[in-house]
Every structure is written in C-alpha cells, then in structure tokens.
Amino acid sequence: ISEDTPPLTLSERSLAAVADFIKSGKARRIVVMTGAGISTAAGIPDFRSPDTGLYANLAALNLPEPEAVFDLTFFCENPRPFYALARELYPGARYRPTVSHVFIALLARKGLLHMLFTQNIDCLERAAGIPPDRIVEAHGSFATQRCIDCKEPFEEARMRDFVARAEVPRCERDGCGGLVKPDIVFFGEALPSAFFEQIGKAKEADLILVMGTSLQVHPFAGLPNMADEKVPRVLFNLEQVGSLGTQADDVMVLGDCDAGVRKLADELGWRDELEKTWREL
Ligand code: CNA
C-alpha cells in the first residue's frame, strides 16, 4: 500500500494508533493468529527460518524433502524422522511461554480476546493461562495420541517415555501393533472440527493480530483475509507474509514479536502487568 493512502479505521498506521483503537473500546473482539515464530524465544525452532529452522536442520534424517516429516504416507513407511523431531517439540517443563503468549493471555484476562487461532503444537498457549475455550489448535497438538489403524488412544505417560527415547510407539491393543501418532495434523489430513466450527470468529473480528507465522499452510493462511477490509490488522513477524501490508489499516511491525508486543504494551500502559505476569508464570 502506498504511504499516502489514508487508513479507513485507524487514525494512522502505527502501534500508537492501534493502542488508541483498543483503549477507545472499539476493539472488543480481537482475533489473534499465531505460528511457530511466537515460540522461538522459548527455544523451540520454527520450520522455515533459514539456518535455525527445523527444515534447515533435517538433513541428517535423510528425508526426500523436509515436509515429509509431517506427511502421513511417509510416516507409515518411516516414522523414525518424526519421532526424532517429536523429541525436540514435545511439550513439558523444558519450555516456558514467551512474552507474546502472555500478551494474548492478558487480552483474554481483559475480556478482549475473541479467539486465538494457533498453528502451534507445543501447548504453550494453555501454559500461559489463555482459557482453553478461547484457543483453536488448528493443527492439533501433542496433548493426545492414537493408533493410526484402529484409532485406539495411547496412554500419555507411556507416550512421553517413547518420545524421550525417540522411539516409535506401537498400538498395544491385542493383535493390532499399528503405529501410534500424536493428534497433530499431518499434510493430507483434515483439520480438527473445532477449526471449522470456530472459523466464523475470524469474520467477526474488529482487530486482527497476526504473530510469528509464514502463512504458508492452508487453510489457516486464509484466516487474516476473512474479516471486512476496514478491520485493522497488525503483523508482528520477522518478515512480511501473506496479504499483510496490502490493506489501508495494516500495521507492519517487522522484527522480533516479543519486542513488538512489548511496544504495544507500552502504548497501552500494560507493560508492567505484562512483565510481572510473564516473570511470575
Ligand atoms: P514457519 O513456517 O516456520 O514460519 C515461522 C514464521 O515466524 C516465519 O515467518 C519467521 O520469519 C517468523 N519468526 C521466527 N521467529 C520469530 C520471532 N522471534 N519474532 C517474529 N517472527 C518470527 O511456521 P508456521 O507456524 O507459519 O508454519 C506452520 C507449521 C509450523 C504449523 O503446522 C506448526 O505445527 C509448525 N510448527 C510448530 C512449532 C511449535 O509448535 N512451536 C514449531 C515448529 C513448527
């Protein structure tokens, strides 16, 4: 968008104007859309960042292409690469929510979070205290797992042991022996029904915050385009992504998302509360 195109809703394209919009009470249904970039500060690598992303570091696993690690057909033939990776991503005491997670929890605490759509499977949203009924885990999570053949659920404690040893668990139901897979969405699998049930929330947004995602995976990537064009959208990301930056009320906060969120918290007068909540988590 050219610099002289005036915004339709905000007073200007800046974080200060976004904060004014929230403080004025005009943003009561904030919808947040997140990806792996909000968890990198917790020590969990994303997929696509050059050098540090998981895809750049999968060479050792001899994959035909990096995405194969989340491909169901490939998993059935060779589940080992997935379980090598699962050890890195598995939720647990090892990882702590980031400032960005806690900012979303503050939105919920203040009654402003309409819905969080996350692509992450690390469960850090819940750990940050965001109420489960405000979270759509669009790509599932590591919270549950089952046999891919007979669908029998597999016990969590046993799963944790297998993942810690990077070993492949097999269904223990009599005579089955099928591969066990966490309920995260692989390429070629349908998204959880919650995604489709809640997708209307993205249309109802009066402010959209997109954080730490390359918006490469569909249908999630379409979410930021579902609200009216007059709805302000803020991107907190290292790089420009999707259609962000093409609408009159798009505010681009390029750089580290925790740093961007701290700036917004400053403008809102929430910074002390943000830091205190994060420290005490
Ligand atoms: P991605 O494709 O790896 O993109 C990450 C995006 O975040 C990129 O645009 C980066 O530039 C950006 N980014 C990285 N670090 C930061 C930072 N500190 N501040 C701001 N921006 C940053 O990941 P997506 O989530 O877009 O891709 C979807 C996949 C990734 C989902 O299916 C996830 O399940 C999967 N994934 C999840 C995790 C996790 O749960 N933490 C980790 C790795 C991959």
From TrEMBL:
Please tell me where Zn(2+) binds in this chain. C147, C150, C171, C176
Q: How is the cofactor bound?
A: Binds 1 zinc ion per subunit.
Q: Name one GO cellular component term.
A: nucleus
The molecular function terms of the Gene Ontology recorded here are:
histone deacetylase activity, NAD-dependent; NAD+ binding; zinc ion binding
* Keyword check for Metal-binding: yes
Q: What is this protein called?
A: NAD-dependent protein deacetylase
Write out the catalytic residues in the record: H139 (proton acceptor)
Q: Which family does it belong to?
A: Belongs to the sirtuin family. Class I subfamily.
Q: Write the Enzyme Commission number(s) for this entry.
A: 2.3.1.286
Protein species of origin: Parathielavia appendiculata
User: Which portion of the complete protein is shown here?
Assistant: 8 to 288 of 403
Q: What are the UniProt keywords, alphabetically?
A: Coiled coil, Metal-binding, NAD, Transferase, Zinc
Domain Deacetylase sirtuin-type span(s) in chain numbering: 8-271
Q: Where does NAD(+) bind?
A: 36-40, 46-48, 119-122, 213-214, 237-239, 257
What is catalyzed by this enzyme?
N(6)-acetyl-L-lysyl-[protein] + NAD(+) + H2O = 2''-O-acetyl-ADP-D-ribose + nicotinamide + L-lysyl-[protein]
